[in-house]
Design a protein that fits this description.
This protein has 160 residues and is an alpha+beta fold. It has one domain: Gcn5-related N-acetyltransferase (GNAT) (Aminopeptidase), CATH 3.40.630.30. Helix content is 26%, strand content 29%. The chain has a seven-stranded mixed sheet, with helices on both faces. The chain is globular and about 40 Å long.
């Protein structure tokens, strides 16, 4: 059984492990990426802040991935950021990424955001394909102050 739900405090260890495993698998630098984010081990409390939510995909009681939405650090209040969206290999290609993005963007619209920003890496082609399918477009430079200096692909989407 597949469940898409908001993160619980009991998910902290599992989702941090998933994110780190995927980043290592993809050869992502540990500095200047989500790998080094201080909130990685306390995701539940991080996403309890105003206008923030983190969703997880649970299959038969096991977490297989997640993704979140939060105000863009250092950005205008109308812009949110799609954050920390990662799936274990066995969860990829199942359509769950699209469902997760839909949940995140639906939440963002409810909270009054008018634009969504994201950062990724050039070789994360499958992720970019999904983002383009969901009407994200490339922009020329970073927005806000995310601290992800190693991410050099930036995309945005207008939220209607």
């Amino acid at each position: 059984m597949v469940i898409l739900r908001k993160i619980s405090v009991n998910d902290n260890e599992a989702i941090a492990k998933i994110i780190r495993e995927v980043l290592v698998e993809l050869g992502v630098p540990k500095v200047g990426t989500a790998y080094a984010d201080p909130e990685l081990d306390t995701m539940f409390s991080t996403y309890q802040k105003a206008r923030s939510a983190y969703f997880v995909i649970e299959v038969d009681g096991q977490l297989l991935g997640g993704g979140g939405i939060a105000p863009l650090a250092g950005g205008p209040e109308a812009i949110c950021e799609l954050q920390k969206m990662y799936f274990l290999p066995q969860a990829r290609g199942m359509g769950w990424g699209e469902k997760l993005i839909d949940a995140c963007l639906g939440f963002a619209k409810e909270k009054g955001f008018t634009q969504c920003y994201l950062e990724t890496m050039p070789y994360m082609k499958a992720a970019q394909k999904l983002y383009k399918k969901k009407a994200f477009g490339y922009i020329d430079g970073p927005m806000g102050a995310t601290g992800h200096t190693s991410c050099n692909v930036w995309m945005t989407k207008t939220l209607a």
